[in-house]
Amino acid sequence: MILNLTGFVFHFFMGRALGPSSYGVLGALWSLLYILIVPTVTIQNTLSKFTSELKAEKEYGKIKYLTTYTLKLFTLLAVLGLIFYLLLSKYIAAFLHIPLTPVIIFGAFFVFAILLPVSRGIIQGLQWFKTLGVNMSFEGFAKLAFGVILVLFGLEVNGAALSVFLAFLFSFLITYFPLRRLSKYKSEKYSLNGLYKYFIPMFIALLVLTSFYSIDVLLVKHFFDSVIAGKYAAMSLVGKTIFFATIAISYVMFPKVSELNKQKKYTKNLLIKSLLLVLAIGVPMTFIYSLFPELVINIFFGEEYLDIANILWRFSLFILFFSLTYTVVMYNLSIDKLKSLSLLFLFALAETALIWKYHGSLLQITNILMILGGGMFIILFLISLLRKNDA
Q1: 338 three-state secondary structure
Q2: Which of 35, 57, 97, 324 is deepest in the core (most CB within 10 A)?
Q3: What is the pLDDT of residue 18?
Q4: Measuring CA to CA, how many Å separate 38 from each of 35, 45, 198?
Q5: Non-local CB neighbours of 65 within 8 Å, separated by 6+ positions
Q6: Minimal CA–CA distance to 155: which of 25, 32, 252, 301?
């Protein structure tokens, strides 16, 4: 919660300090970040699951092996990913109509964005929750502090991008100290085939989900001028507060459903309860954003962004549908029901194709998102609800 809160303060400061045009550059980069960090979320969840299972059996030697092996593996993958990103950086900048320098700086965080969730996943699986909480809070405060200082010193978007890299770098270095506690155990090799099998479907599902609420900002940056793109990015961030306010529900639901499913017990009641909780939080927020859009935009970003307030209710409704969809998807992942998830790819493809063809106005784009978001949730929910033997 502290990490998310400092993240919002970071964006609200940047929106006011940079202005709509420069914030449009940062907004596009941030949507790119959402896609690039999908592997990090998958890595942390996967390693947390396997570490906790080994901890239950007091297999600390295997945990040490898991830590060492995955750090080496993902260091290699992160370096290769960074090289690939840098090769594409020129084309990314050209597509988004933004300077090359912030794109390159933003890519510098790539290595540590891959390695940090490895450390955090092990720490989370070992249930060192205070250590994990302090580390995540430190990341949030570091990003905010570095960002404010560097922007006030005149680095503008480059300073904002550099703050992300520095926050990830120092947060990763700090995780070294608690993990030293594993050094007293003798490393014990074991098969990681189960880890890879679990990683792949979760990665694909999270990648498609993330692209679904990120690709619109990138396409708006491509098709519209920088001022309009900046205002859209600001409005998008406000709407996404609904998702970030409800995402913890799926994090709690996931292990509970997984445990019940392993015990061959009924699980759909937890899905229904989770969706009701999402609605209990998301509906009032959507209602407020719909009734008082200008007040909300003015509080978060200031008067320069007010002319985008008229579409906030449509985008908020889309994010509410997306939050419900995310919960349904995590439910299906927890019980290993993966066939229906192929629909996610079709909807993400439809979103890209429709916005690419119909982008005459931001109103047209938000209408596309709202309709697709509602359709995606209804179809996936009905499939999950009507499916037999979810146990």
Answers
A1: coil
A2: 324
A3: 84
A4: 6, 11, 15
A5: 187, 188, 189, 190
A6: 25
Please name which of 187, 147, 213, 162 lies closest in space to residue 372, comparing C-alpha atoms.
Answer: 213
For the record, the structure tokens of 168 come out as 């990830």
Cβ within 8 Å of residue 300, ≥6 positions away:
12, 15, 234, 237, 238
Asked if 230 and 304 count as a contact pair (C-beta separation under 8 A), the reply is no
Question: How many Cα atoms occupy the beta-carbon half-sphere of 83 within 13 Å?
Answer: 5
> Hey, how many other C-beta atoms are within 10 angstroms of the C-beta on 302?
15
Are 178 and 123 a contacting pair, CB within 8 Å? yes
Here the contacts of 190-194 (C-beta below 8 Å, separation 24 or greater) are 190/59, 190/62, 190/65, 192/66, 192/69, 194/50
CA dist list (Å): 79 to 32, 110, 269:
18, 8, 44
Q: Do 180 and 316 touch, CB atoms closer than 8 A? A: no
Can you spell out the DSSP letters for 283-333? HHHHHHHHHSHHHHHHHHT-GGGGGGGGGHHHHHHHHHHHHHHHHHHHHHH
Q: Which of 330, 316, 322, 315 is nearest to 377 (CA)?
A: 322
Contact 355, 216 (CB under 8 A): yes
Residue in the structure block whose two tokens are 């019980």: 335
Q: What is the pLDDT of residue 74?
A: 86
pLDDT at 54: 81
pLDDT at 204: 82
Are the CB atoms for 66 and 57 separated by under 8 Å? no
Burial 60-77 (b: 16+ CB within 10 A, else e): bbbbbbbbebbeeebeee
Q: How far is CA 324 from CA 211, 247, 262, 318, 385, in A?
A: 16, 9, 24, 10, 14
Give the residues of the chain that fall short of pLDDT 70. 34, 255, 259, 262, 389-391
Structure tokens at 5: 């809160």
How far is residue 85's CA from residue 299's CA, in Å, rounded to a whole number?
36
State the SS3 of 127-144.
CCHHHHHHHHHHHHHHHH
| Pair 122, 43: CB distance under 8 Å | no
Which residue shows structure tokens 């202005």? Answer: 19
Whether the full predicted model's pTM is greater than 0.85, yes or no, is: no
